[in-house]
């Protein structure tokens, strides 16, 4: 009977855990959207009365609910924490996490120990969401609630943008870490360095352990982790201090008793809880008996009002280590009077208390200097916090073109990838054809033209809408130094494009025409012209569409430190993998094929789109260093389906070349002659059952034309991913 009780259904991943999982390329199918495929959220928010919504939120914050009482009679601090934790999981290296899609509502994030209690905050907002329905997304509502809470508690905010669209299933594209248990972090550190792309120091946290590194109450060591985590999330030291000091002006930590009485997370709770988790079976389990973090700390004597008391207390008192009711290390002010109000009993007062992570701002020399400056200049502190809050809650929204609503600030920040104003007439179809001829008449090869266009466009990542072809950032530092972009070759190509640009623009000017062409457009036009030429060689006269209107950004508009940090170490589309001697074939998440799928997800590709793009780029010779690895054709530069035909040819036997099993050679089984060379990224297309099923479609004798048109369609999608001017055309920002 015991064995029968433990029987369960086994999934494919249980039996074959090393099988490459393609599920992230199937997410958010338009048929699954509950509002239907034609739903346009941006159009919906054009009809939203934002001021009425804000009024409703402010009323809600002061309306105490018996099922979850408000600390200090105001839900503002809880909503600030909700917005902060929604936005705060963003990390710069892959742009994932953050607030833009409302993924905080789903596992794993809603179940993280750092997010205990946020299920209640979301349920408190449900009456507002119910009232406004499709006119406000959860993603926008969560951030708006936190921002309005700050304003209602006396802070002058910078502004707010609508435009975040919800997802309706868990985000399974994000690698949150290798740990199997929450609140552990050793596996993400190697040689005292936090592995990329991780930002939080422990699994299940947003930033750092508030008790100190792995629970060690050492403020100096805590400061080191804070600096690392906040930098990984795109914040400098000044922004870090402002956010911590500003955020801790409000609310409290909760640890009324031992954590042994804490129930399961929302996803593990039983149906009658209706999505609420962490039921605390200690006394009343709410109000004064609440458990969230295990700490029992209130930072300010005015916890529902913005101010500098947190900083005043931090430097005014000496701090003594104590244990919370849950036994966690926290700090109490020595010889301080009881000046902190109780959250639920007006007759009780407490001494000021702090977390180890708070004291880091006092004992780290750089943080301390910044904090003391803020203490001396409260207005500067408020402005810096407002600016940092806006960045925290908006940095994954993309360029300012993606911002909507009446309270979008006029400011444009470097993390929004600003570009100059376009004050010329766009080129037309005839101009594009002339420019194609000019480009093809140069010494540039099909491989160079396609590779450069791909290098420019494929820097886009949908996680935070940064990168892309618009702006031609590839010609500027540091992208022009990225190894995968062929820096020396790129420099010469850009010079040729600049010459063509100058000739065309001077010619237009002499005609009295206001038309101008950008380098950004020329790079894409060049790639499209090369594809047309390659298709023509294959016997198909096709036109690769070009939508002009891209602008050339300036070096001053490039966030250099950010783009230096995100230099890619892998791009399977270009057959590039920097660490070909360091991956572990037995750990699928370290392999080149895993990072291919990861990049395809960031480019919003489906499985067929990913496969057809690889096949096309290979036969066009658009591979790193223009090598012959993966170019499975005898006629490179011709847009044929040869990659798929030869990959699936059973007359060819593949053998490993290097110890790491990254490079392979294909030999004719009969003659023993070397036919082709490939990487494991190429071979995975023929090996993986789902990828092979698609490859078989394109390898078929009747698929030559289909392959070309599908490749062009996928190519056109890539080169226009960052054209928000087209996506939001006709909609008011």
Describe this structure in words.
This protein is mainly α and 733 residues long. Among the domains are: 186-389, Peroxidase, domain 2 (Orthogonal Bundle), CATH 1.10.420; 429-565, Peroxidase, domain 1 (Orthogonal Bundle), CATH 1.10.520; 570-699, Orthogonal Bundle (Peroxidase, domain 2), CATH 1.10.420.10. The chain contains 25 helices and 12 strands. Strands 3-4-7 form a 3-stranded antiparallel sheet. A 3-stranded antiparallel sheet has the order 10-11-12. A hairpin with a 5-residue loop joins strand 11 and strand 12 (674-679).
Trace the largest sheet across and list its strands: 3-4-7
- What's the β-strand tally? 12
N→C terminal distance: 64 Å
Individual helix count: 25
* Shape category: globular
Provide the low-confidence segments as ranges.
Answer: 1-5
Question: In CATH terms, what is the fold-level topology of the domain at 186-389?
Answer: Peroxidase, domain 2
Class by SSE composition:
mainly alpha
What is the fold's blueprint, element by element?
Layout: H1 2-5, H2 12-15, H3 41-46, H4 50-61, H5 76-87, H6 118-132, H7 138-152, E1 189-190, E2 193-194, H8 219-232, H9 237-247, H10 309-316, E3 319-323, E4 329-333, E5 340-341, E6 349-350, E7 353-354, H11 356-363, H12 365-376, H13 378-394, H14 429-440, H15 446-457, H16 487-510, H17 519-537, H18 560-565, E8 570-571, E9 576-577, H19 592-602, H20 607-619, H21 642-647, E10 652-656, E11 663-668, E12 674-679, H22 680-687, H23 689-699, H24 704-719, H25 724-727
Antiparallel strand pairs: 1-2, 3-4, 4-7, 5-6, 8-9, 10-11, 11-12
Helix pairs in contact: 4-6, 4-7, 5-7, 8-11, 9-12, 9-13, 11-12, 12-13, 14-17, 15-17, 20-23, 20-24, 22-23
